[in-house]
Amino acid sequence: MDLSEATAMKVTELQAKLDRKLGPEYVSQRPGPGGGPKLTYAEGWKIINLANEVFGFNGWSSSIVNLITDYVDFTEETRRYNVGITAVVRVTLRDGVFHEDVGYGSIENAKSKGAAFDKCKKEAVTDAVKRSLRNFGNLLGNCLYDKSYTQEVVKIKVAPASISPALSLALLLNQPKG
């Protein structure tokens, strides 16, 4: 098999993985803004773990393209901060293929300006990473934009998480010698 066939096979295998939809263990819900309908989402750490599984821990990277402070409001009476930040992030695969997307982070009534900025930047960047990764396929979150899928997947009950074999091994290796 020559290199081009091997490469084509790897791309086909990768596309097959990315075409699969997220299992219910990756899907969460929270109340919508203003008590509106529930929002269905995947937590950032879960999507990052999936990206590491699919592409390899060294098969992809993310970089902040832009970070914009949309507003910083300080209310004198309450001595609290309201902050909103937009992030643009690029996710690049080892072969150079990339996707960029935007994310947003905000906070109302923060006690300190520093804590408000810290929270908003992290939220905006995580949101942008997730949105960038979803452009690679269903497995990395694109399926969450399919309303018929999300209506069904949230009905599936998920068993409580058990300790993974890797974590079990880490715990075993870190036990004091007796």
Helix content: 25-40%
Distance between the termini: 53 Å
Structural class: alpha+beta
Spatial extent as radius of gyration: 20 Å
Give the CATH superfamily.
DNA repair protein Rad52/59/22
How much of the residues is beta strand, in percent? 25-35%
Count the domains.
1
State the main characteristics.
178 residues, three-stranded antiparallel sheet, globular, two-stranded antiparallel ribbon, 5 helices, Enolase-like, domain 1, 38% helix, alpha+beta
Q: What do these coordinates show?
A:
Strand 3 and strand 4 form a beta hairpin. Helix content is 38%, strand content 28%. The protein is globular, with a radius of gyration of 20 Å. It has a single domain, classed as DNA repair protein Rad52/59/22 (Enolase-like, domain 1), CATH 3.30.390. The protein has 5 helices and 5 strands; from the N terminus they run αββαβββααα. The strands form 2 sheets. A 3-stranded antiparallel β-sheet has the order 3-4-5. Belongs to the RAD52 family. It comes from Jaapia argillacea MUCL 33604. GO terms for molecular function: single-stranded DNA binding. Keywords: DNA damage, DNA recombination, DNA repair.
